Amino acid sequence: MPYGxxxxxxxxKIPAWAWKWLKWRTRKGQPKxxxxxxxxxxxxxxxxxxxxxxxxxxxxxxxxxxxxxxxGHYRTWQKIxxxxxxxxxxxxxxxxxxxxDCLDVEPGDASIIQAPAWVKRQLASWSKSHHDxxxxxxxxxxxxxxxxxxxxxxxxxxxxxxxxxWSAHYxxxxxxxxxxxxxxxxxxxxxxxxxxxxxxxxxxxxESICSPGFFK
Length: 216
Fold this sequence. Notes:
With 216 residues, the chain is α/β, with parallel strands linked by helices. The chain is 20% helix and 18% strand. An 8-stranded mixed beta barrel has the order 1-2-3-4-5-6-7-8. Helix 2 links the parallel strand 2 and strand 3 (88-93). The longest helix has 13 residues, at 142-154. The two termini are 56 Å apart.
């Protein structure tokens, strides 16, 4: 019998409410089960501002995110790594034969044609080393943004899943913004980050706005 022995003197047919009362009586005084602890909430991704410049002394020391070059004429990565140990960091490669977190696609650096193979190479070894970004990043101007996305798509690379897009668009009327169809240039997607000024803090300094989730 689930609730203990049947008390004497009860009618043969016991109403349902009586069984509930017996259940309460038999369980009264027993220790209550410990409450299940609430899961620890995960921190929500936040919008971040990222600085980069060939002259790293212009970058504020309290910057939350910084980018630096691993190759080319202005190799700033070592200084960035040492000078901003607590900041989120983005390693930029300007040549497609070199590895990094981001490929710089613009005249004089890597080309749109080279970008898909570079992203695929990074993805092949992405999990073997630490990265502050979730996926390889490709940087280009707003005017070339959709052409780059189209080239990636034709190579089987999915926007936002296989790579992230970082655009450059200096438009004082827009201020800090993520490039989207509103910017024109035939853009059909929204950039994950946009470098919106080269005069940040009144200096000759590049600043980008990075969407939540751009950095891990």
